[in-house]
Design brief:
The chain is α/β, with parallel strands linked by helices. Helices cover about 35% and strands about 20% of the residues. It folds into two domains: about 280 residues, Rossmann fold (3-Layer(aba) Sandwich); about 240 residues, Rossmann fold. α13 links the parallel β17 and β18. Bound molecules: pyridoxal-5'-phosphate (PLP).
């Protein structure tokens, strides 16, 4: 069942989270959704990739919200046997010098265009493992730092070994964020120089060969997004897999065994940082190609990591997955070939206005129905709907829209507005949880003036309903912390313009008044809503075709560009073929 994927060399795409489908809760947010879109595009374009991730049997979590606006986290357990096939391979990763056995499931992404992409899900839940080791691959972003380092050892060391055990020939290793950086250490251990080529006192590892194989995509300038581990912990968990010149024998050069040799401690510190093991630093050190996920983000990252060239490959979203059913039908009819070549959406101007508006009306009704089902609130199809949904965390500033309630009430008094919100906070992000509670409080305060609803348990399905059913997509991050942001790109596939802070992708995507609008702060947000956006929406601007023209420009300019087909063609030509 694996043979079809072994016939040619593949790029191994490593990611701690991958959003495979709504029923499989192995993702927490944008990073995982992007990883899923990457592999979905690889399947569409028949690019030879193989995804590698943890099986995360207990998922991230299912979100409930109590009447006080407090987030409640429920387990999101899933059964891999229902969606994937267990493969006949098993490797050991040594943690504190005990073997932790890692098995693997195969999930196959099937493209609408016939292509297929394999994804390997690593699983330590085996009877031969200790009870606690069986849980290493259970909880996505759960547990403490010991648990996290164990997970990253299984992903980085175990992932490379599983690929070898299954017979994959790997042409490049692509690290989606630093969580998988230990794969570089695994490759180094394997690529030792022959003894004769090593001068005394020099590490026997072939760093150039490793760098030649590795690519690294960094995804966030936010400090908390970069894993760091104390060397005390690293030494404890690596145990005899790391040697110190002071008290251990160096490995014999040129002799990688099936378990490979240990790694020198001085090599780890020189690659991963002197005072602690910084996974971003390690990934930078072992990779020959490094990129950020938007032009602005690459600039910010270049300043953060002096001495490294950080290129920009701006993110994109998967065309088919992020178009509502009514838009898929519309594009199939008027823009055949759009799934393979979304550039064709530049031809959106040939679609009759009425057909486009009808597709949007259907998507909006689907959202209104869902809001009713989940909250009992009845929204109006004729009222301008603002959508905001993403991970709830401080830098995303979900409360910016609610800075001045008096002002917001008066905006809504002049031009009716309704607001739909959603998003999960990481279980340990107290500020994110406080923001969820605050948004619920604001919704109550605004009752009677304008409807504000918060939909629980944001996931892929809800995201599609929101980005296609809203009329205006809002994003208010604190610059420069939004590396890219992708939900606004999803909105673009459904003709929904963005009203956003100029940060991340929006620096490239915003053409003022054509694809949406830029804002700087709460004051400019209210100002633009009241005097530009809502008058245009309601046709008070003296331009009856104004809104539909904006919808078409959003599709023809932004969906045509900010898609994962373009993104993967760039990774293929600039990062993989080197
Ligand atoms: C797209 C998506 C995200 C990321 O959205 P941003 O705008 O990048 O914050 C997060 N969660 C889900 C479920 C998504 O579909």
């Amino acid at each position: 069942m694996l043979d079809e994927f072994l016939s040619l060399p593949r790029v191994a795409y490593f990611s701690m989270e991958i959003a495979l489908r709504n029923e499989i809760p192995t993702y927490a947010g944008g990073l995982g959704v992007l990883a899923g879109d990457t592999l979905r595009s690889a399947a569409d374009l028949r690019l030879p990739l193989v995804g590698v991730t943890l099986v995360s049997r207990a998922g991230y979590f299912r979100q409930e919200i109590d009447s006080g606006g407090q987030q409640i986290e429920r387990p999101a357990t899933w059964d891999p046997a229902r969606w994937a096939q267990r493969l006949d391979a098993k490797v050991a990763v040594r943690i504190e010098d005990r073997p932790v056995w890692v098995s693997v499931w195969l999930y196959v992404i099937e493209s609408r265009m016939g292509g297929r992409a394999p994804v390997l899900l690593l699983d330590t839940d085996l009877p031969e493992n200790r009870e606690d080791d069986r849980q290493i691959t259970h909880y996505l972003y759960g547990g403490d730092e010991v648990y996290r380092l164990e997970q990253e050892m299984v992903l980085g060391f175990g992932g490379v070994r599983i690929l070898r055990a299954l017979g994959f020939e790997i042409s490049a290793y692509h690290m989606n964020e630093g969580h998988s950086a230990l794969l570089g250490v695994e490759l180094l251990r394997h690529f030792t120089y022959p003894a004769d080529d090593v001068r005394p006192g020099e590490a026997p590892y072939d760093l150039p060969r490793t760098r030649d194989l590795c690519r690294f995509t960094t995804h966030t300038p936010v400090e908390a997004g970069h894993d760091r581990f104390s060397y005390e912990l690293v030494k404890r968990l690596f145990a005899s897999s790391v040697y110190d010149r002071d008290n251990h024998e160096a490995p014999k050069p040129g002799q990688p065994g099936p378990e490979y040799g240990p790694i020198g401690f001085s090599v780890l510190t020189s690659l991963g940082g002197a005072s602690e093991l910084n996974m971003t630093q390690l990934a930078l050190s072992v990779s020959d190609f490094v990129n950020g996920v938007a032009k602005r983000h690459a600039e910010v990252s270049s300043k953060m990591y002096p001495g490294y060239q950080v290129r920009a490959i701006t993110n994109g979203v998967h065309p088919y997955s992020w178009s509502a059913a009514s838009f898929r039908e519309l594009y199939d009819r008027f823009v055949p070939g759009w799934c393979h070549e979304p550039e064709l959406l530049g031809r959106v101007h040939g679609i009759p206005d009425a057909s486009l508006l009808e597709a949007h009306a259907k998507a909006k009704q689907a959202l209104i129905d869902k809001v009713h089902e989940l909250t009992g609130v009845v929204l109006q199809a004729s009222v301008a709907t603002l959508g905001f949904a993403r991970r709830m965390t401080a830098y995303k500033r979900p409360d910016l829209l609610f800075t001045d309630l008096t002002r917001l009430r008066s905006v809504a008094h002049e031009h009716p507005v309704q607001i739909v919100l959603a998003g999960k906070a990481h279980p340990r992000d107290a500020e994110g949880k406080r923001l969820i509670a605050l948004l619920h409080e604001r919704a109550r305060e605004l009752a009677g003036a304008l409807p504000v609803v918060y939909l629980p348990d944001y996931d892929l399905d809800l995201a599609l309903l929101l980005v296609s059913g809203a009329d205006i997509w809002l994003n208010t991050p604190l610059p420069p912390l939004e590396a890219s942001g992708t939900s606004g790109m999803k909105a673009a596939f459904n003709g929904v313009p963005s009203l956003s802070q100029l940060d991340g992708w929006w620096v490239e995507g915003c053409i003022e008044g054509v694809t949406g609008w830029a804002i700087e702060d709460a004051a400019s947000l209210y100002e633009k809503l009241a005097h530009t956006v809502l008058p245009l929406y309601y046709g008070y601007s003296g331009d009856p075709r104004g809104w539909v023209r904006l919808m078409k420009a959003t599709i023809g300019t932004n969906a045509a560009y900010f898609n994962s087909q373009r993104m993967m063609r760039r990774y293929a030509t600039e990062a993989y073929l080197r």
